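Write out this protein's structure.
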Amino acid sequence: MNLLRLFVPENWSPDDQNVTQWFWVTDTGLKGGRLDRGLPTGFRTQVFLPACEVLTLDIDLPRKGRWREALPYAVEEYLLGDLNNAHIVSDIQSVSPLTRAQILDRNWLNQLLAYLKEQGVSVDEMYSQSAVISNQPNEWTALINVHGAYLVQQNGLSHALDTVESDEPPFILKKILSEKDKTQRPTHLRLIWEGIAPDRVEQVSIAWSEELGVRCTIEGNFKGYAMRPLSAHASNVLTGAFASDSTNNWRKLNRPLKLTLILAAATVLVWVLGFSVQTWLWGNTIRQLKAQTETELRRGFPETRSILNPQLQMQKGLADLRAQAGTYSPDELPALLGRLKELGDIDYAHLISLDYQNQNALLVWHCDSADQAETLLGQLKKLGLEGTLKADSNGQNVMLKLMKATP
């Protein structure tokens, strides 16, 4: 997603309609100095506020209980205006164990957002300008412009400074340094300027280095930092009632990403439609086979009144037909063996094999002679078993092909 960053002028007020003092930059290399001409569209938009409009505090609050309710009262002593008009953004992670609080004038913020909306700017995120300043250990940064200055410490805490009208370091800067012990004082102070002549910044750098006892270096114009990554201490101030509306996020996506998402959605849609059609075809095939089975069942067994399970009913009907034709099915063989046990022990014959072939039970007996085989067949007939007798070549093995069982 392409990114547009818009920087609010240091002296902007709701009555200021001067669009030429604005500055914007994108990650595609576009830059501009007007709000009403050439502003790109279709970008995720981040707006950066002058640090003088954002009061930053690190407050010691209990981490348990209703600390959020206690936060407004903890910052009240630092406010000049009405507490009810303060928009407070809290962060309990970045400066643990303290709580980082950023405080803005609610009316001013409402008027700024309304003004941007009139200019056609849809804001996604909003930060203090200090959010793009990342300091190394023992390093602080001072941003200086014609309207004032502000200080960004190593932990991201920022302070508004006096206007730099002379080479003398701002009083607040000297006071902050005096309150720090040796381990907390910076060894390096970077100066980032905006709208000030380079030779003037050079004079300030030399004077501050001598007076503060801290090495001061010039890091160049602030616009060179406009597309730096957000620092670890950056907090979006659009929270609560000011949370940005994400309904327009689609139009802010770049064209390749849009095409990728559309292609992915189309692929999923085609797959779902294909699966649905295939499922319907399978179901239709099953319904046709079921209807065909029911038709064949009624054609073969017209006496069937109701059909619950055509396959099972068809199998039962076929089993009944086999029984009427006098043939044994494989599941009837255990019952057949049970009938043969009624013969008892036969001293002149014993069963060699029992097999099922061509829907008939085939039994092979070994008898001592052909006469004994005839006697065995007679005993079988007394049990209601009908069959044929066939002797082998030596006249001693007997094959009985049982066609049916009668009660």
